[in-house]
Amino acid sequence: MKFYLTFFHKAIIYIALCTYFNTINAQVKTSKEPNWILNQDYKTTIDIALDEVDYGYVMLLADEQVHLPKQERYYRNVKKITDNLGIQHVAEVGDIYDPKYQTITFHKIDIIRNGEVINKLDVNNFQVIRRESNSENYIYDGRLTAITNLADIRKDDIVDYSYTITGFNPIHDGNFSGAFSLNNFIYINKSNIRILSNTDLDYKLFNSDLQPTVTSENGLKVYRWFAENIQNVEIDYESPSWLIEYQNLFVSDYKTWKNVIDWGTKLYHVKDKISPQLQAKINAIKSKSIEESDRIVAALEFVQNEIRYLGLEDGIGSYKPFSPNKVFEQRFGDCKDKTLLLVTILNAMDIEAYPMLVNSVIGKSIPEILPSPKSFDHVVVKATDKTGRDLYYDPTMTNQKGSYEKIYFPNYETGLVLKDGNFELEKLQNFSDNLVEVFDEFKIGELGKGATLKVTTIYYEYEADKMRNYYKNSSLTSIKNDFKDYYANYYENIETTADPIIKDDSLKNVVTIYENYELQDIWDEVVTDGDDISVTFTPSAIYDILILPTEKERKKEFALYYPATKRHTINIKLPRAWNIESTDYNIYSKDFYYEFEGNYKRASNELNLMSYYKNQSSYVKPENFKQYYNDIKDLENRISYYISVPKSYAASDSNIRQKNSNSTQLASDVIKNIFLFLVLPIIVILVIILIIVLIVKNSKK
Length: 701
Known about the structure:
5 domains; C8orf32 fold; Immunoglobulin-like; eight-stranded mixed β-sheet
């Protein structure tokens, strides 16, 4: 019996493996190139110096042709390897497709070496892999990657391959929209984009004035964009994410945003009656919460925190949400599912709410793009309370707190509300300050040695939400080590003297954290003066979010951390009395504001430094950049405040100097020494002279 079971298991495994590999081979097909394409030639020479080539290869031909009635997208890429480094990038051939509604067919894979054509197309060499590149975000789209790794690829080889992906997502009901790139991160010798359509298409090109040729062929309209010698794009990582930097072509047969709204409202229309289980949950929320505001918060917290985020987005699931009954029962869903569930719960409590399409990356650019469902990558909720106030919520966020009208909503910039009668985009405004307040208390012992540091940090709005998520996902030991490592960037030989204390006021959405440290040595040698040692005080909460440019001039927008408001107060208990004058200054820039105040309390030997910073915008316009550069560099040079003392006097606490970036003051001991050894003798001499003069005058009388 044991032998029989073992043999049986092996047979099952063998059959399964055979079925698996046969399925893979069946998924990858080969055929001749479609007869509707327009064949393209290409040059093997390039108009670019070899030392200007990135990644070790160039694209001799980038060809993409689409036949809308046939639902076929044809691709042909011809790449030339100019350096051994390029072999790694060129040797893998393949693409991604969705097996729910697409097939992939390869037409040729040729290697051209010294004028000889080597056929490398062999269906048995393909692998079909389910990579799920977005699984770290709990999104599984079911797409497959068909790839083959070419053997014996060499420098100077030309790799010429073509394939067709057949099938459009049926969720679009025959409508078409898409984006194409005329350029890339590598040099392109020739680019060809050709679209055959049985309807008129709208098109718009960014960063290029290239116009298409429009002709007719077999009753179809043919749109073609052709370009040569296209330089590669160097992505500017200091620009905002919404800035479109490629030469992107957008094509759509959706004429207006209302067409997209009509498409979306059908998808989010709930036909099923609310299940008894979901209705019981709605009734429980209503019974526990009398006020509308409390019901909104309770519904949001339930969907955010008890429906885990998980996206199964294969096929039409990439656009169509599951039934709210199903999402409630399975207790998971993606942004579409969680949004529709929250909308359903709110509507059942007579609270007006609708799904709203947004783009989490290029939201600000959406109004400039042609109408299309593909312009969005996320779905959120727009609600309206009984007073008519508009409310916006993201059900995929977690652990959000605060009153219902102040719950943080990300800066998505633009939204499309899926509501009957709506016909246009909505501009979204962010009114959050995201304030963080930091209070540092230093107590300096002997000069030249250490100090104690107490830190109190108060987080508001989204900063509180982020910190709440952080501490709920981290152990106390991890939090303590993370905090210590942070301050170790500013002070060496630091030790934690007590565990961090975290207080969370969920009603006000305020998180407060208390920290305590022992700094063994806070003094450093002054680089410009080897005889002095100094200690520096920096408002780290502000310094950490300063975006310092690497160039003085720009032609593109410059991204800032936004919204951001930081107030950092540093209290320093000094070991003795100092003669310090109060100082303050402001920097008024078009894109940020900075305020500094330094005050000294002689009675308690305390120095208070208050710094306040607020970004006024999410980006700097090119015409404002020069001022921003000058202002932010000014702030960088002035943001730190330090005191210094000669090494030889550290032990005696004399001849102390205190400085910041604006002024230098002598300590009280220095003034006393000047008075005793210079001013006082002069006064004594003057008094003696005065007495002698008076005596002489009296004697004459």
